[in-house]
Request: fold
Amino acid sequence: MNDRRAFLRFLAASPLYAGLPHAASALAQTSDAPGTLVGRPQEAFDVFDLERVAHRNIPVAHWGYLMTAVDGEETLKANREAFAHYQLRTRRLVDVSKLDMGMELFGTRYASPIFLCPLGSQKAFQAEGELAVAHAAKSRNALQILSTMTSTPVEDVIKARSGPLWYQLYTTNDFDVAIKLAQRAEAAGCAAIAVTVDLPAGRNTETLSRAIAADTRQCTACHAPGGAPMSTRPMFSGLDAGRLLNSSPSLTWDFIKRLKDATKMKVLVKGLESGEDAGLALKYGCDGVMVSNHGGRATETGRGTLECLPEVVAAVKGRIPVLVDGGIRRGTDALKALALGATAVGIGRPYIWGLGAFGQPGVERTMDLLNNELRLAMAGIGARSLREITPAALIRKV
Ligand SMILES: Cc1cc2nc3c(=O)[nH]c(=O)nc-3n(C[C@H](O)[C@H](O)[C@H](O)COP(=O)(O)O)c2cc1C
Reply:
């Protein structure tokens, strides 16, 4: 801990600090100063209070993995900035004493349109990892999507959730393996599968590389250098994973067709950003699309996902659900995405802040904070249900 603090102080004092990308500056926050950290989940006033505690608790290299984006982190910034381009247009004297935030997706009802995105290796942030998240998702009746890179087997997570779970699929560079992963998720009871398509060729996660260089712990005491190899991850046990790549350079729409034939689960693609691709998703029989840029961790200098959402919604024309994630940190952010036509909105880093800060109660607090903020925003625009959140609630700033 002392090494870590000394490194953070060095970074904060360095003249180079001002030039660091966004997440690298996040890496350098000295937010664990006495008196600034909340001691219990209930004391957190917003998700950023949880972020500061998580930052203190999570080892430097793992924090770097959580916060990193790619290259200069322009897409990461664009995700947040996109929300600031819109203001809310209020409506008054509507009876909002009863608000229904319930969302139905593929026949299942959830308490809120805010869902938990797939994030890999959750035990790197807190010992209970995906199980703590599953217990929290159960207690708040939220949709949880489990990553292919999960540190807990899907069978155990779905038991802890004891309810609907979706699976996120990295196809790898071997599509036979991908089908086997999908079949295992289906046999475990997953209701839907989201194929991530935004990482065709690897990526340059600069902030992560800096964090690894700064972490003086013996990482190899727990895992191989650079993180656990695919072959040791729970979803790859029993598969010939020795030479698998996590990227899928030859992935095309044909695989979606093959997957549709191989499973009864609903099939979504995660990582679309254009109307053209949304049209192709419909053509190839997708049951839903997820507008996402992997939280700024895929293509650099892309648009914020909120900017991409309208063209996808226009192409889909209400025929299948459109989910979106990226940079959602407030209930008002969620409301803006819903007003632009999203069916549901995903959070990534914020629930991991809750997890890293306080485990299951921290994840629950993240959801409570965002849901309460969304409730207030809905009351502000006079919307009593998700259906009543329409583009009329937004003004685009010039
Ligand atoms: C640490 C980390 C790990 C992630 N792992 C995965 C993954 O395994 N599969 C995937 O499809 N997306 C993954 N994502 C992307 C998220 O599913 C989601 O798109 C993104 O985090 C949303 O942006 P936000 O973090 O700004 O809320 C990951 C994101 C982070 C931050």
In short: Residues 1-20, 29-34 have pLDDT under 50 and may be disordered. The first helix runs from residue 2 to 13. The pocket of flavin mononucleotide is lined by residues 65-66, 79, 117-120, 147, 149, 168, 196, 270, 292, 294-295, 297, 325-328, 346-349 (CB under 6 Å).
